[in-house]
Specification:
41% of the residues lie in helices and 18% in strands. It is α+β, with helices and mostly antiparallel strands. It has a 7-stranded antiparallel β-sheet.
Length: 205
């Protein structure tokens, strides 16, 4: 079965109030789409990077009371997990899809990566298109336009603050027609990941 895009029903999942109800909807509506889309993107990244990449789909296993506000797939170079590694994400909040290259707080080498990025700000500015967005916390829906972000300050915070994160990519509103076209959205996600590959590689230098 091919990925056919995201629908209004997928986004309405996050209006369901009960944990079990929302989790069932995530598992039945969204996770099969993540598998279809994620398998394709994982194969693409494996070829582009010349190494095996692995698909992880968020299980929200620690959730006991509050239902998740978003859900996502992640692609990393580690089979066992992704949070401790630079990784790629595609996911949904109730009002948008996000496509990220993500460096989150669990990274053991977070300070070293931040230092490398601080030393290569020119490369970051040249690599990331102006219509991309930046987030310093993957739990928050909002993100800052890349062209308006204070890159040095953001990277310094990423370096200094234990819980600070650094995520670069795109937000696509839930009513954007491209989300209903599986092939078109896949192309956008793949292009986004390709664009950000130099930063992924830089993090491993």
């Amino acid at each position: 079965m091919m990925f056919t895009g995201f629908t209004k029903q997928d986004f309405s999942t996050f209006q369901l109030n009960e944990l079990d109800e929302r989790m069932t909807a995530i598992q039945e509506r969204i996770q099969p789409k993540f598998k279809q889309l994620g398998d394709e993107l994982t194969d693409d990244l494996s070829v582009l990077l010349g190494q095996e990449m692995f698909l992880h789909i968020a299980r929200h296993a620690r959730r006991k009371v509050n239902p998740p506000n978003d859900t996502w797939l992640a692609i990393a170079n580690n089979k066992r997990g992704y949070k401790q590694h630079p990784h790629f994400q595609v996911g949904l909040f109730d009002d948008h899809v996000f496509i990220w290259l993500a460096f989150i707080y669990e990274l053991p080498r977070k300070q070293a990566i931040a230092k490398t990025f601080l030393e290569n700000q020119k490369l970051l500015k040249e690599t990331v298109p102006s219509d991309y967005v930046l987030s310093l916390d993957h739990l928050k829906k909002d993100a800052e336009p890349w062209e308006e972000a204070d890159l040095k300050q953001s990277l310094q915070r990423f370096h200094d603050v234990k819980k600070a994160e650094f995520l670069i990519g795109r937000h696509i509103p839930s009513d954007d027609p491209i989300l209903k076209d599986g092939d078109a959205f896949y192309a956008v996600a793949k292009e986004t990941f390709e664009t950000l590959l130099p930063l992924y590689k830089l993090a491993y230098q």
